[in-house]
Amino acid sequence: MEYIDAAKGTEFPLYPRELSWLAFNGRVLQEAADERNPPIERLRFLGIYSNNMDEFFRVRVADVKRRILLKKYQSSEQEDAEALLQEIQQQVLQLGARFNAIYLDIQLELRKHNIELIDHFKLTELQSGWVRSYFRNEVIKHISPMILSGDEVSLPKALDDNTTYLMVEMTGAGKPEYAIVQVPTNELSRFIELPLHLNTRKKNGHYRRQILLLDDVIVHCIADLFSGFFEFDAIQAYSLKLTRDAEYNISDTLDQSLMDKMSKGIRQRLKSEPVRLVYDAAMPEQMLKVLSKQLGTSSVDSLIPGSRYRNFKDFIGFPNIGHQSLEFPTLPPLQSPEFEQYATSFDAIRAGDIMLHYPYHNFGYFTEWVRQASFDPKVSHIKMTMYRVAKHSRVIHSLLDAVRNGKKVTVVVELKARFDEENNINWARKMTEAGIQVVFGLTTLKIHSKLCLISRLEKGKLVQYGHIGTGNFNEKTARIYTDMSLFTCHQEITAEIGQVFEFIEYSYRPYQFKHLIVSPTWSRPRLIQLIQREIDFAISGRKAEIFLKINNLVDQQIVELLYRASQAGVKIRIIVRGMCSLMPGISGKSQNIKIISVLDRFLEHARVYVFHNGGETDVYLSSADWMTRNIDQRVEVGVPIYDVRIKQQVLDTLDIQWRDNVKARIIDAKQSNAYVKRGNKRSIRSQQQIYDYFARQQQQNSDSGL
Asked: Annotated binding site, which residues?
């Protein structure tokens, strides 16, 4: 039976965030199952699902386990957490079974297109010889087995997080010997295409393209790896993967730099508590017992049987070795007419606010703006926040160029950006060495805002140009995440952006924000005020509406206020990507609330808040989800859209998404993920429709000569 948190102490029900997160990943699995998607893309969705599930266990399940362990003296709360963990485990197993069925279905579909994923059991004699040669020449140099006999190896400390391993058993006259072999995917491709002339020939005379996983190469040659060192009559190997708690504790000693602390924190994460062991379901029971004993798994550890392959997240990058129709058609990034008609980015922004919608628009307009600033003699100072950036970031290279050109550059680096800490530490060191002023902000708050502020001397006066966005300054994710970026030289807004940078460095000073919605101190009261204003309109009999596009909606106070807004008669529409604690459509509580979720080829990432405001519609874009951490525990920034044309553009895109009847799911009180029914209406696939919307604008401006 599904576990539902009744939200003790409140009259409103809250759907558990962990189960809501699983419902979101269920929508990812729906995309993998959707035969309207090309087969290679379906396979990649399985990779996304797997990657998401890894993070789920590292963060959400780890948190539930901590609640069980820390609340052992509060029996009722411990029982709630244990019931939740039990429900999580049950749903994960159900999703896993669905995953395996979808994978088999995709394999059959790929065979129709002359592509075959084979395992080592299906190798011909000629192919087997080639694989053994490949193993000797390319693979074996990257492998150093861990032998489990004796007390020399502590397996819980030795295994890295989310890495694919093979558990090896060698049997003969004596007692069995066990070993662990890491699959070296950091050094070699996971997907190995067999030479075409060795492959199976189809009836029409063409050869079938065949791919063997690196795991199977090692299993096929496993005897070669251990021969000469061990005597055995039989040898077998099965895959496994350990997932650890992503949280970590860092001491607050004053004699360590923050970067040193964070480096230690990352190392600690690699050796932190395991929360999940996934293993090949075909692994013999005795081998599993040995593995469990070596790891010291407890009663609350998640032991999850699965298919023969671990770390399916690598399938996100599965190569298309067939026809281009096997993956999504390319949508070339569109031009921005506002930027294109001016000689410099600064001229364009000075002429009026500009909004870019990624990945529909080209992220290159942002990188070009920073590049121009790096050598523009009028630019004196560049300030930027950095949460997640690409490993080969053009943005940071432009900042390094700016320092060489004598500009003052300040970069706020968030070292605690989960799973990007190491990349950010490396960039922070490189920027510091180059002369950039690197600021690590507040140790108790993550800096999640997406800000850039460029100061320029124009006609003897300092003019500031600002950027506020919903997404990171990351060239890679800008091609697959839907985000919005506002470029402005509105002097009151840019002045407040400057105040945010000051707050990060000098949080003890008093600040006031008239335009921006800034977390942590100023966000909650402002959001409450905006929602309450709609409630007051509804109570007075006037039209009252709220329209939200958000990634996660789980802050209890805000959710309860939305319930109260619904009770007052406020019409509320929400497009949510991930977790949602609010349960819509409940009579007397949330009957005025409708929620959908859109999941398609791009990851929905933008956050937009719309309030009817008595007909004077307010539109904000923000970096913040409506989660307690974003409202109270991070530095986040939301910005109002004042330009009438841009405001209408944002509302148009939201309307297109709300009318999606191809990739939209209804979020109901049970989060069952039913698709929005199309009926007799024309097909609306919102991401494609939004691309077409901006393509038409580009064409219209081209036709008009702009």
From this structure: 52, 388, 418, 481, 577, 605
